[in-house]
Design a protein that fits this description.
Two copies of one chain form a homodimer. Chain A is 38% helix and 19% strand. Chain A contains 17 helices and 18 strands. Chain A has helices at residues 9-19, 27-32, 54-67, 119-125, 143-149, 156-159, 162-165, 194-198, 232-244, 257-267, 285-301, 313-324, 326-331, 348-364, 391-410, 426-433, 436-447, and strands at residues 23-24, 47-49, 71-74, 91-94, 101-105, 110-114, 131-132, 166-172, 178-180, 207-214, 216-217, 221-228, 251-255, 276-283, 305-310, 338-341, 371-374, 379-386. In chain A, strand 5 (101-105) and strand 6 (110-114) form a beta hairpin. In chain A, 58% of the residues are buried.
């Protein structure tokens, strides 16, 4: 790894001239920007800038390029694979002050936002329209960050991921060009899909400054359900069969008994400590009732019990808040821990086998590792707790993740369903995609010949 | 435009050694491969090859690259913007014999097919599974061709386009490398989205040889409906309001009175010659009934009348066959004509305005130009009939299309919703996307430094 160089005074002077007090070299500010939710070593930038516009981002890029200084885009700092760590030093571009919802087109079911707008902020600002933005990666991430990591979450089984929900992006390229990747129409076949090329590029090809996202009509009725199962396999099979039956489930989350125990402790809930499914159904009043009944019948056929459903907003929200707190609840199983949040995704037919084998791996190592996830997509997470100061503990956790990824790859799956590659998954990318990674490397070199855009992330080019 | 060069004997000899009798220089075969459904001048290749495998495509690419010979991939020849025309000569790679469905993964809701499999063939081969592949661009195109042009069709409003329904591609690159762009899981954040980069690249970045597509569960019930309207605006507003209400319409097609007249003549049907909407609803028995009732209420509020719906498969199929025959029915309005099939797509809120202005343009030019389309996506088509031997007629049709595209671009729309750029839309790409087109050009040069992969299409690099 290249050693971070000292910033020369000239870069700082030019940035100060551009930004005034919207640049900081304060150690606390730098350290805050040098960590994320991963268990990787912190790595602080040499300075942090807070632009307010696409044009300012362009000017920052131009200054940094001239001086050969790396640029790391930063949203809410909620990435889990080290995406925001300044492993080669440089300037962190904190986009959180670019937090304006620029336009809400109710009739078009879309909104244009600056990259620093968070998903909760957007949903708050559009609440009166009867529309909502469905992608929810747990944390209250920014839409720029979610685009950059191709995030998804619990609603993806029905509404898709960021890939399906970004209509267009404004991007500042390494050479200072500002491009808009698409128009605002819902479909287009006009040339190469630059939008999708930047979605998931983790700041390595350019800095996303504006995002046009799809919105969806809030359905007349939403109901949530919980159901207990004697085994993981029964729970997972219930979801698979529901999807194969064409039931348009909005959410279907699996939680193992360890996860439930963590949630009960964290959220003061009293779910029985057995494998669970949490569901959500969206539709008309009659429609959600019908969906719940169909799913209940499938669950019963898979030894499900204690099926409860509710359309009361308050109970629904409490349930999903508990689900979204899962990661933090799991961290509390061993206070003071950090964690590797694994993220494999496999074809649905292999999901039960993959989870059961992973559960056996957990048992074989006498570990306390919660397993939960978006089973409708074949995507699940383990929270592998570790003490970052205990090298053996870190290695044990990494080895577990390695075995899990190898298991998923052997089942035609991917090492990352939604967290992205960052630093943590690079070692698996080649095994997963072979020569396609060389093509990605060529694209990286084309867009960023100086290797200054979030260098060292996704793939190495030096 | 570069003049096609003569093929040298060595190229032919090497291709014959590789392919035996699966290469043809027969004039009829070449001419068949030198035309599509556009009104552009025919342009035949110097030879046509019929590979059977990805490895053969690679060997063909390697031979052609060595000799500097252009390669044009060819599926069913149903493109409408000149995508398959051999405007610089070279070898057409006809993939129609690569027509094997390689795997159907029922439990995973996906299928892996060779590029030459057509959508109807796939649906035929998976009928017993209860699954279906929803994308239907009218013609029985190949899945390779549909991927290459980012096709969609009548179901896109509910099921998405090829962009959302391709999971992974196998692609032969210009340098002879074979890559697979993704694993088979339903989600992944593993690196740059090469799948989406090739979807819509029209053979200019590589040749797609295998496609992994999503399948969808056939719903318990499907019903179709027709409804008449006094004006285009009323019909279009009905669709927009239905979508904004969150009704999960599977299809919503607008047809103007001229289109209805053409269909009646072609399909011997007796629809009243006024603007129509054709709908389809997918769901449970109760669900489709509910959807139809909700849409009928919205239609009535927009002066709709004669609302009829049916769940009988035979009537449904007759309706959609008529819709799919629209293009050919319109050609019969002036037998012997060819046509420009326009393809703009605008944000939903501008659709009524765009169609009404287009209707006024039709009236001002006393022309017979049918207007119909996928109004749920904001995408509509005009069939502009022309006599290819009458330069004035050709220019009149092109001018109409130019005005239409300019109108759509002024409304934040795109020049092509689903047909692609080919030769016909290149002049509009720069106006639509500005500097982003330069980035596309850089990508083209990276992937195809010799400009041999379907040269002259999508964008010019020389």
């Amino acid at each position: 790894m290249n050693k971070p160089r000292e910033l020369n005074a000239s870069v700082l002077n030019e940035l100060v001239a551009l930004l005034g007090d919207r640049i900081s070299t304060n150690q606390g500010v730098r350290d805050h920007h040098g960590k994320d939710e991963s268990s990787l070593p912190f790595a602080s930038p040499q300075a942090v800038v807070f632009p307010l516009s696409t044009e300012e981002v362009r000017d920052i890029v131009n200054i940094c390029r001239t001086h050969g200084v790396p640029l790391i885009p930063f949203g809410a700092g909620t990435s889990v694979e080290g995406q925001v760590l300044a492993v080669r030093g440089g300037i962190t571009v904190d986009l959180s002050r670019m937090n304006k919802v620029l336009a809400v087109h109710e009739a078009d079911l879309d909104a244009v936002v600056q990259a620093g707008v968070t998903r909760k902020q957007l949903n708050e600002e559009i609440r009166h329209t009867g529309l909502f933005f469905p992608i929810d990666p747990g944390a209250d991430a920014t839409l720029g960050g979610m685009s950059a990591t191709r995030a998804s979450g619990t609603n993806a089984v029905r509404y898709g991921t960021m890939r399906e929900n970004v209509i267009a992006l404004t991007v500042v390229l390494a050479d200072g060009r500002i491009i808009r990747t698409a128009r605002r129409s819902r479909k287009s076949s006009a040339g190469y899909d630059l939008t999708r090329l930047f979605v998931g590029s983790e700041g390595t090809l350019g800095i996303i400054t504006e995002v046009c996202v799809r919105l969806h009509a809030m359905q007349e009725a939403m109901s949530a359900a919980v159901c207990c199962f004697p085994s993981m396999a029964d729970a997972v099979n219930t979801v698979i069969q529901s999807i194969q039956s064409g039931i348009p489930i909005a959410r279907s989350e699996f939680l193992c008994e360890t996860t439930i125990r963590a949630i009960n402790a964290y959220s003061k809930s009293i779910h029985p400590e057995v494998p669970h499914l949490f569901f959500e159904f969206h539709g008309t009043e009659a429609g959600v009732k019908e969906q719940a009944e169909l799913v209940q019948a499938i669950a019963t056929g898979n030894h499900g019990s204690g099926f409860q459903w509710t359309s009361r907003a308050e109970e629904r929200n409490r349930l999903w808040q508990a689900r979204h707190d899962t990661y933090f609840a799991c961290l509390q199983l061993r206070p003071g821990s950090r964690a590797i949040a694994t993220d494999v995704c496999v074809p649905l037919s292999r999901l039960t086998e993959c989870i059961v084998a992973t559960q056996a791996d957990v048992a074989a190592h006498s570990a306390t590792i919660p397993i939960f996830g978006h089973v409708g997509d074949g995507n699940f997470h383990c929270v592998v707790l570790l003490d970052p100061n205990d090298p053996q503990d870190v290695e044990r956790a990494r080895a577990f993740n390695r075995r899990l990824v190898e298991r998923a790859l052997a089942m035609e799956g991917t090492c990352t369903g939604e967290h992205g590659v960052g630093l943590g998954k690079q070692q698996y990318l080649q095994a997963e995609l072979g020569e396609a990674v060389d093509v990605m490397r060529d694209i990286k070199r084309l867009f960023d010949p100086g290797n200054l855009m979030n260098p060292g992330k996704v793939l190495r080019v030096d």
